[in-house]
Amino acid sequence: MFKEFRDFAIKGNMIDLAIGVIIGAAFGAIVSSIVDDIFMPLIGIIIGGIDFSGIVLTVGEAKVNIGLFINAVVKFTIIAFVLFLVVKGINALKRDAAKEPVETTPAPSREEVLLTEIRDALRANPR
To answer: What is the pLDDT of residues 7-28, one digit of tens each?
Structure first.
């Protein structure tokens, strides 16, 4: 059972998936920093100095963090757009690869066909 698990875990696809998850987490941290530290303050300055992270709606005793939700929507939009560009690029590469002509071997000439027949006939009738 351990051998089966090891074989499964070491397969190329599993390792690629693990690397993708790690890179995705790091990318998420970068996007969070860009949104929280660069975009949202700039957007706040443009629309009148509003700090989105401080926008809170109080309903009774509950606090609804609308500003944090707005930050999350901006982060999601950035990540979705970047992934869209990546998928679009991959699809373009696949289309270009599909357009490339496939090299085929030319059909044998008439002389080659005749020589092959003669060779096969000589092999079939040894002296």
So the answer is: 766 666 777 788 888 988 888 8
What are the counts of helices (DSSP H) followed by strands (DSSP E) for the chain?
Answer: 5, 2
Greatest Cα pair distance, the chain, in angstroms, is 107
* CA distances from residue 31 to 18, 23, 43, 85, 95 in whole angstroms, order as listed: 20, 12, 16, 15, 30
**Which amino acid makes up residue 106?**
P
**Global pTM?**
0.53
Residues linked to residue 64 through DSSP beta bridges, in sequence order: 57
DSSP result, 52-68: GGG--EEETTEEE-HHH
Q: Does residue 36 contact residue 68 with C-beta atoms inside 8 Å?
A: no
Q: Which residues pair with 57 in a beta bridge?
A: 64
Q: How many CB atoms lie within 10 A of CB 17?
A: 11
